Amino acid sequence: MHPVTGVDPKDDAYYELGDVRLVRGEGVRMWDSDGREYLDCVSGTFNLVLGHNHPAVVAAIKGQVDDLVFASSSFQTDPTNRVMRQLVELTPPNLTKVNLRSSGGSTANEGAIKIAQWHTGRRDVIVPFRGHVGQTVAAAGWNGSARIRAPFQQHMPGALHVPDPYCHRCFYKQEPDSCGKLCVDRIDDFITYASTGSVAAMIIEPISGVGGNVVPPPGYLQRLKEFCVEREIVLIFDENQTGLGRTGSLFAADHFGVAPNMITVSKGLTGSGLPLAAIITEEALVGMPRNLHGFTYGSHTLSAAAAVVTLDIVRQPEFLANVRATGKVILDGLTALKEKFEFLDDVRGVGLMLGVELAEPDGAKSPRLATALSKALGDLGVITRVSEHGLGNVIELRPPLILTVADAHLVVDRFAEAMETVWTSSPSR
Q1: Which of 248, 172, 165, 176 is nearest to 213 (CA)?
Q2: CA triple 412-415-419, angle to 5 deg
Q3: Which residues have C-beta within 8 Å of that of residue 13, sequence separation ≥ 6?
Q4: How far apart are the first and last CA of the chain?
C-alpha cells in the first residue's frame, strides 16, 4: 500500500511488480522504503556501469539541464558531437562512423541489421542459439530462443539460428581443444540447407547475456570473423552488455582481439540509466538514408552529456584494472565453492560479466535451483538475475564496475551462505 495514496501500486501496473519499493541508490547499493540495504549485482538492468547516482554523471546531467535538455538528431550539439568522437577513438580502428539515432539496444541492433541489409542487398540474419537481439517485434523474431518468439505469429523473415559456442554443453558433443571450431564451420550447412541463400549479417553477443553468460573458447571469434569475411557476411557485435568496460577491456572486441564490421552499444553508455544507443560502423557501411532508421529520443542531448563523462571515466586504465581485479576475486571465490556444492555446475565469465550455472545430480540444467539460489541471495540483500528472463539455470552477475575488492569478497561470502541454504533444503541432495 502506498503511504500517501493508500492504493496498492500492483492494482495499477499492467505487469507484475515485486513488493520492494526502492527509494535511494548510491554506488553499488540501494535502499528500500523500510531502510533495508541491497547490494546491486545486476547494475539496475545491466546498465549502471558506474553504479547508482555517480556524482560526476549527476553533475553533468544537472549542468546540461540548465543549457539544453533535448535537440532533434538533425542538429549538432556539443554533447552528441563529443560522444561520437569518443566512440570513434575508443572502438577498434576500423570503426569510424557513429549513428546515434537509436535510444536502446533493441533498436540499435535493428539499425545495424538494416544497414547490413541495405548495403548487401541480402536479407537473412544469422543469430546463435540463446542469442538475445532485443524485445521489439522484429528483434524478438530474430532472438535465438523460441520461448520469446512463440507468442507472436508474425516474425521478420530470414532469421537463421545456429549452435552457439556453449562448450560446457556442446551441441556437437565435442571438446574445445580438439573440435576445430566445428560450430563455426557447420554454419555453412545451415546457410546451404536452412537459409534463403541470401545472408546479410551475423549478429552475436561476444559473451551472451540473457542466454546464460556463454563465453566463447579461444579462437572462436577470430574464426567467425574469417568465416564472415570469406562469405561477405557483415559481422555485428552486440556489445550492449559487454561494452563500456564490463569485460575489463573497453569492449569485448578488444578483449578477444577481433574487430567486427559494426558494434552496437547502449545500456551502460550513459552511466546513469538515461537512454542512449550507438551503432559504430566501418566507412564502407555508410550511406543508408537517415530516414530509414531514426527514433524520437535517439541522440538525446541530456543522455549524451552523461555519456561524455561516463566514457571519460571507463576509459581510464586504473578503472579497467579494477574491473579485472574484482572480477577475478569473484570468479576465483565462486569456483572454489564448486568443491563443496555439487549442484554448482560451472562458473564462467570475464571481468565483471559472470555466470553461475546450476545443475541437478544427473547433470541436467536446473532452473529450479537457480531460482532458489537467486531468492536466497535476495534474502541476504544481494540482487541477482536468472538467465533467460528468469527461466534459465544460470545466475547472472553484473555488478557496477566501481565494485571494490572488499565488496567482491562480500559477494562471494553471500554466495557461500546462500548456497548453504539451498544445499540443506534441496530434496535432491
Answers
A1: 165
A2: 145
A3: none
A4: 40
With bands split at pLDDT 50, 70 and 90, how would you rate the model's confidence at 1? low
| DSSP states of 250-319 | SSHHHHHT---SEEEE-GGGGSSS---EEEEEEGGGTTS-GGGS--TTTT-HHHHHHHHHHHHHHTSHHH
Residue 105: all three cell numbers together: 539496444
DSSP state, residue 168: G
CA dihedral (321, 323, 93, 219) positive or negative? positive
The helix/strand/coil state of 190 is helix
Helix (H, G, I), strand (E, B) or coil at 132: coil
Dihedral angle, C-alpha 378, 207, 334, 52, nearest 10 °: -40
Question: What is the C-alpha separation between 366 and 357, in angstroms, rounded?
Answer: 8
Cβ contact 95:88 at 8 Å = yes
Strands 159-162 and 124-128, by their bridges, are parallel
Q: What are phi and psi of 100, to 5 degrees?
A: -100, 15
**CB-side exposure of 11: number of CA atoms within 13 Å?**
6
- CA 96, 285, 207, 274 torsion-angle sign: positive
- The predicted model scores a pTM of 0.95
pLDDT tens digits, 9-40: 778 888 888 889 999 999 999 999 999 999 99
In whole angstroms, what is the distance from residue 241 CA to residue 120 CA?
27
How is 356-406 classified by DSSP, letter by letter? EEEB-TTS-B-HHHHHHHHHHHHHTTEE-EEHHHHTSSEEEE---TT--HH
Residues 236-274 pLDDT 10s: 999 999 999 999 999 999 999 999 999 999 999 999 999
* Residue whose C-alpha is closest to residue 352's, from 380, 384, 336, 329: 329
Classify residue 233 by its DSSP letter: P
Got the DSSP string for 310-341? HHHHHTSHHHHHHHHHHHHHHHHHHHHHTTT-
Handedness of CA 381, 382, 386, 389 (dihedral sign): positive
Confidence band for 156, pLDDT divided at 50, 70 and 90? confident
Number of residues written out for the chain: 429
- Amino acid sitting at position 187: I
